[in-house]
Specification:
By secondary structure, this protein is an all-alpha fold. It has one domain. Helices cover 75% and strands 0% of the residues. Helix 1 crosses helix 3, helix 2 packs across helix 3 and helix 3 packs antiparallel against helix 4.
Length: 88
């Protein structure tokens, strides 16, 4: 699989995870964040991509640090959107 194919597949899977969080309302802050971003003028797709970026950053942090998922860090980063975790 080419790198671009791998990236597209990973992006699709991350967005599926965001959709699962929204469907299950778990964590509830995901729905709150989607609603907030849409009220701020983002499209549904753009808001989900931003949430997915936070999820991907959290997954990266889990793998890098070999520590468990941090709901506190995830919520903190969602609350900072549209600023991404690696920005300022």
């Amino acid at each position: 699989m080419k790198q671009s194919d791998q990236q597209a597949h990973l992006s699709t899977e991350i967005l599926k995870s965001v959709d699962n969080q929204l469907r299950d309302n778990n964590p509830a802050v995901t729905r709150d964040t989607l609603d907030r971003l849409k009220k701020e003028g983002r499209s549904d797709a753009d808001a989900k991509r931003l949430i997915g970026a936070v999820l991907a950053a959290e997954m990266y942090e889990v793998l890098k640090s070999r520590q468990p998922f941090s709901l506190d860090r995830y919520v903190r980063n969602l609350n900072r959107l549209p600023m991404l975790p690696w920005e300022g």
